Structure formats: C-alpha cells, structure tokens
Amino acid sequence: MLETIAGLVVMTRDQAKARLRQQLAGTDLVASLLKDRRNAARQEDDPASTSTITTTP
C-alpha cells in the first residue's frame, strides 16, 4: 500500500519492488550519502557555522 496525492495505491510485493527500483533508477545513493555526510562534517568543523550561547553578567 502506498499513499499518494490521489489516494492509496494497493500493489503486490513484486509490484512495489518494481516501482521502487523505477524510482531509484539513475540515482547514485552512495554518492548522495557521502555528499550529505561530507557537508555535515564540514559544518561540524567550521566554527562559524556552530551556534554558541553567550550570556552577559
């Protein structure tokens, strides 16, 4: 079962796997995950991107 804008789509397991493969075709998941992780690491390493809380006495 898949929820869409038009409503629910009921399909077999094989149909669901085929649909997922079709949606993922042409995407490089590993490259995408590595890019996301590198961006997160860059933000963690960049002192300007971290927020600090300062209080005045």
What can you tell me about this protein's structure?
The protein is mainly α and 57 residues long. The chain contains 2 helices and 2 strands. The protein has helices at residues 13-24, 29-45; strands spanning 2-4, 7-9. A two-stranded antiparallel sheet has the order 1-2. A hairpin with a 2-residue loop joins β1 and β2 (7-9). The relative contact order is 0.08.
Helix/strand layout:
Blueprint lengths: L1 E3 L2 E3 L3 H12 L4 H17 L12
Antiparallel strand pairs: 1-2
Which descriptors apply to this entry?
57 residues, mainly alpha
Q: Percent of residues in beta strands?
A: 5-15%
Summarize the main sheet. 2 strands, antiparallel
**What spatial order of strands do you see in the largest sheet?**
1-2
Helix content: 40-55%
Mean pLDDT: 82
Order of helices and strands: EEHH
Count structural domains: 1
- The secondary structure category is mainly alpha
Distance between the termini: 58 Å
CA-based gyration radius: 21 Å
The general outline is elongated
Question: Based on DSSP secondary structure assignment, what is the total number of beta strands?
Answer: 2
Q: Count every helix, treating DSSP H or I runs of 4 or more residues as helices.
A: 2
Q: Return residue spans where pLDDT drops below 50 for at least 5 consecutive residues.
A: none
